[in-house]
Amino acid sequence: AKVLLVARHRQGGQTPYGPLLAAVPRDDSPIARVQAYIVDHIDQAFTVQKMADLVAMSGRNFARTFQREIGITPLQYLQNARIDQARKLLECGDLPLKVVATRCGFGSDRHMRKVFCERIGMTPAQYRAQFGCL
Hints:
CATH architecture: Orthogonal Bundle
CATH class: Mainly Alpha
Radius of gyration: 16 Å
Structural class: mainly alpha
Number of domains: 1
Shape: elongated
Strand content: under 5%
Order of helices and strands: HHHHHHH
Largest sheet: none
Number of strands: 0
Mean pLDDT: 84
Helix content: 55-70%
CATH superfamily: Homeodomain-like
C-alpha cells in the first residue's frame, strides 16, 4: 500500500493527462467573469492588474479573492488555461507550433516549450506525436 504504480503510457493513444482546469463556471460572480474572459481571450496578454480591472477591483484584493475562491493564483490559472488550450490544438490539429503558441498567448514557441516541459513533462512536439489524432 506504500507504493502506487501508475502506467506511464496508456493503451489506445489515450492521454493520461486530464485538463488542468475544471469547467469555467458561467455565473455572474466577478471571479467567474474573469475566468470566462481569460478562456475566451486566451491569446491576449494578461497581468493581475488587467484581470482586476475587468471587475473593477484592486489588483491586491482581486489576487487574494481569486486565490481564496479558486485555490490557485490568477497567473497560475492563466498558465493552466493556456496549457489546456494548447493541448486541444496539438491533439486535434496540425498547426505549426509557433501558431499554437501565438493562439494560446504564450508569445513564442520557445516559451510554450519551456512551460510544457515543466508542467506536462514533455515538449509540445512530443505531446502532439503521442496524443495527436493525425
